Amino acid sequence: MVIHIVIVDLRDPNIRLVVTPGDPQAESSLQARTTTDFLEEFDVQVAVNGDGFTPWWSNSILDYYPHTGDPVEPVGFAASEGTIYAQGSGAGPTLYISRKNRVKFNSPDGGIYNAISGNLMLLAAGKTLPEALQLAESNIPQPRSAVGLDKNGRRLIIVAVDGRQPNYSEGATLAELADILIAHDAYFGMNLDGGGSTTLAAQGRLGSARLLNSPIDHSIPGRERPVGNHLGIQVVQDNGN
Q: What is the per-residue pLDDT across 39-74, written as a single tens digit (0 to 9) for each?
């Protein structure tokens, strides 16, 4: 199992969290893009894929959706810089991020600024939730993406686990994903879109995006899937620019 961890100090005044912006007036609020495309377009230094999205299918390398630029809609609630662009079904959990990086699950700290959702809460009060163990696919190792928060709300923990790649990394079960979060001091944790969507990227020395993990789409290791929204970490200058 190959695991990638990014820990973000939310108290650092030079850190800014970014959620992919969307258009609430459009029939589908987002245009699909890869995680590396998001990183470069919005000038963030680290990026992970976010919520599930619709429509989606993957019948073959010639018959799939979405391609980059195709319209999609996130499954859950989503907002970027104060603009709510998806209401979601209300079934999944949501990570709320204030303008000053106050982060909470399932209820905003003040007005809604940034928000990104997942399909399942994995942890609450430092313990794995039963729902993470009861799903039919819980015990199947898969590529996984997750985001966690420590007890004091000071550190954001981003996890990406590679999978579906024999002799490299099979993936993690949901129970194992929860254990990984707990091992890195997460007190709360949420499962993001996984499988072929799991992608973690960072800005390289010359400014271009590079993959930190080995995503897999259409059974091709290293191939990125265009997805709906993303969570980015941006390091801003001391003067606030």
A: 999 999 999 999 999 999 999 999 999 999 999 999
Print the domain residue range for 18: 3-235
pTM to 2 decimal places: 0.95
Residue 237 has pLDDT above 80, yes or no: no
Tell me the pLDDT tens digit for each residue of 68-91: 999 999 999 999 999 999 999 777
Within-domain flag for 199: yes
Instruction: State how far the Cα of 171 lies from the Cα of 174, in Å rounded to an integer.
Output: 10
Here the tokens at position 22 are 């969307």
Average pLDDT over residues 173-192: 97
Q: Is position 76 within any domain?
A: yes
What phi and psi, each to the nearest 5 degrees, are found at residue 2? -105, 120
Sign of the Cα pseudo-torsion (77, 81, 83, 85, in order):
negative
Residue 240 lies in a domain: no
Residue 241 inside a domain? The answer is no
Q: Cα dist. 213→35, 79, 161, 169 in Å?
A: 11, 26, 8, 11
Q: Which helix (H) or strand (E) element contains residue 37?
A: helix 35-41
Q: How many domains does the chain have?
A: 1
Q: Tell me how crowded residue 12 is: count the other CB atoms within 10 A of its CB.
A: 12
Beta partners for residue 115, in sequence order: 79, 96
At a CB cut-off of 8 Å and minimum separation 6, what does 122 contact? 128, 129, 132, 146, 148, 174, 177, 178, 181, 189, 190, 191
pLDDT surpasses 80 at 5: yes
